[in-house]
Design brief:
The complex is a heterodimer of chains A (276) and B (303). Chain A is mainly α and 276 residues long. Chain A folds into 2 domains: 49 residues; 198 residues, MetI-like fold (Orthogonal Bundle). Chain A is built from 12 helices and no strands. In chain A, helix 4 crosses helix 12 and helix 9 runs antiparallel to helix 10. The radius of gyration of chain A is 27 Å and the shape is flat. In chain B, helix 5 packs antiparallel against helix 10 and helix 9 crosses helix 10. Chain B has 2 domains: 54 residues, no CATH class; 206 residues, MetI-like (MetI-like fold, Orthogonal Bundle). The two termini of chain B are 40 Å apart. Chain B is mainly α and 303 residues long. Chain B is 81% helix and 0% strand.
């Protein structure tokens, strides 16, 4: 049995030399990547001043905080928290709707089959991409400075942060339209409007709706924290409770966020599954 | 769908007119139900819209008043660049370039270390969270809930709490990124594992491998390209996230951005934002190239 195995291995080695004896440059390259990876990781750990001692001390403090959080209890602020949560949902909803409405023309502009100009297409795609580089929280901070504290700044931050990304996704949806239904409508004597309504729209609309719903989900998540910089919603309550060391209320708010986000996710996932 | 509509007339009738009539009847009924659903969805949407507008004090006058303010603000952040003195103006705009580049490096490092630490945690948790790899439903359930918790609590909330526990600075930010990353990557990794080909797993089990060996030799080799692809994707997201963590004092370029916005140093804001956009775009392009190569290799190997 043993010898047979050895013979097998020898045979495998002979038939597949590239697996057992990889060429030197390839091995050097792999080692180089690993060494570089570990060097960057080590440098990063050094830069952020990570040490086992710090982790240990911090974990002790974290344990203390968790101890203070139990049991989560809203105190007498429950109506405020629920109202703030509603405000958060409203911000996410309005921001998503505005972004979606504005993204439709952008999507048509960015679609290759609508405007078949290579340079324009490339430019507008890069422009869409560039906006993704700025986090929603930074937009919120900017709009709080521009239009003042409150949910209005949050709505604007969500809308501005999303409109470009949605525009890009819409453009892709429009590009992926199947020509055959369009030809079919045209062949049975439909005009331009009929082609749009019966050939293009039924293909594009479910995809767009599903993207919009997905963005709504993710916006509910991000809207929960926009309040930290003063843009309204539950985040303001949370950062205030943490600031005044009311950890029980903070834990309650975190739980409230968790529950709300899961409910929204479940609803939106169900609708999305129905759409596609 | 056709089974929902009354069909008793269709079977007995054989004349053309009758069949046509029943067809039209069914068509009308389907159109009726669909129209009702659309109306219902539309009504729900309108109700949500009206509710949101009333809750968030959003109003058209407010919008008309607010938008020019926002536009003025954004226009105000743009620097004055003249053709005669372009280099001088650029130098003045980017007066703090050295300092900002340092913070930018810190942001990228935070994203990198956070992704790696979170990835390691995710790798440890993803096997117990895969339904096809664990028999004990208790372990599966616990791992899934732990990942869900890490994923659903926003990164910034972790950062707020960690800043209290570990002190101000990038260390708290990295931990916040790592925990959140562990949650989202763990779920994605577990989904990869659940789609893994069972034959190598059976093979390792049949030759007497224990559970860690099955994971290492049966699952990881086929899932590795997908893991790496998700890691890179997460790295892009985390660099972006790291730039915002500075707003709560958790290190990175966000700290200086916060100061610039709060003290109305207009041109600094646009300078830093432009740097951020450039950095994230470059990282996006690099990661995308590597990702396509990884997944491409995977496909050619599988074929």
């Amino acid at each position: 049995m043993n010898t047979a195995q050895h013979a097998d291995i020898a045979r495998l080695r002979r038939t597949n030399p590239e697996i057992f004896n990889r060429p030197l440059p390839q091995r050097l390259r792999d080692w180089g990547i690993w060494v570089a990876f570990i060097a960057v990781l080590g440098f990063g750990l050094w830069w952020i001043d990570a040490s086992p001692m710090r982790i240990f001390n911090g974990l002790g403090k974290l344990g203390m905080l968790v101890g203070l959080m139990i049991p989560p209890w809203p105190g007498d602020g429950l109506p405020d928290y629920l109202l703030a949560m509603l405000e958060t949902l409203a911000m996410a909803f309005l921001g998503t709707v505005i972004a979606a409405v504005l993204a439709v023309p952008l999507g048509f502009m960015g679609a290759k089959n609508i405007i078949p100009n290579w340079a324009f297409h490339f430019g507008i795609r890069r422009f869409f991409d560039a906006f993704r580089g700025i986090d929603g929280l930074v937009w919120a901070l900017i709009f709080v400075s521009a239009v003042g504290l409150g949910p209005f700044a949050g709505v604007l931050a969500i809308a501005v942060g999303d409109v470009m990304v949605l525009g890009k996704l819409f453009a892709e949806a429009i590009e992926n339209v199947d020509k055959k239904p369009v030809d079919g409508v045209r062949a049975s004597g439909g005009g331009r409007l009929h082609v749009m309504r019966l050939g293009v729209f039924p293909q594009v609309f479910p995809v767009m709706m599903s993207h919009v719903l997905y963005f709504f989900e993710s916006n509910v998540r991000s809207a929960t924290i926009l309040g930290i910089v003063g843009a309204g919603g539950i985040g303001l309550q949370l950062s205030d409770r943490i600031r005044i060391n009311n950890w029980q209320a903070a834990a309650f708010i975190i739980l409230l966020i968790l529950v709300t986000v899961s409910i929204i996710d479940a609803i939106s996932r169900r609708i999305r599954a129905k759409l596609t | 769908m056709s089974t929902l509509t009354p069909t008793n007339g269709r079977l007995s009738s054989t004349t053309r007119e009758e069949r046509l009539l029943s067809f039209e009847g069914r068509y009308r009924q389907q159109q009726f139900t669909r129209r009702n659903w659309t109306l219902l969805y539309g009504a729900l949407f309108l109700a949500a819209l009206v509710g949101s507008i009333s809750v968030s004090d959003f109003s058209i006058p407010g919008l008309i008043k607010g938008l020019p303010m926002a536009w003025n603000y954004i226009a105000g952040t743009l620097p004055k660049l003249t053709l005669e003195n372009l280099w001088g103006d650029l130098g003045e705009w980017y007066w703090g370039l050295r300092f900002w580049l340092r913070l930018l490096v810190e942001t990228i490092l935070m994203g990198f270390v956070g992704t790696v630490l979170g990835g390691i945690l995710a790798l440890l948790l993803c096997f117990p969270a895969s339904r096809n790899l664990v028999e004990n439903t208790g372990i599966y359930f616990a791992a899934r809930r732990a990942l869900e918790f890490c994923r659903t609590v926003p990164e910034l909330v972790f950062a707020l709490i960690f800043v209290f526990a570990f002190g101000l600075g990038p260390f708290a930010g990295v931990l916040a990124i790592a925990v959140h990353t562990a949650g989202s990557l763990g779920k994605l990794f577990a989904e990869v594992n659940e789609n893994a080909d069972p034959r190598p797993i059976e093979g390792v089990r049949a030759s007497g491998g224990n559970w860690p060996m099955i994971m290492r030799l049966g699952v990881v080799p086929q899932a590795l390209p997908n893991y790496a692809s998700y890691l890179l994707l997460r790295f892009e997201i985390n660099v972006r996230g790291a730039s915002a963590l500075g707003l709560v004092g958790a290190g990175g370029i966000g700290e200086d951005l916060y100061v610039a916005i709060r003290q109305f140093e207009y041109t600094d804001i646009s300078a830093i934002l432009l740097l951020l956009i450039l950095t994230t775009s470059v990282i996006d392009i690099i990661c995308e190239t590597i990702r396509h190569r990884l997944i491409g290799n995977d496909l050619t190997q599988g074929a």
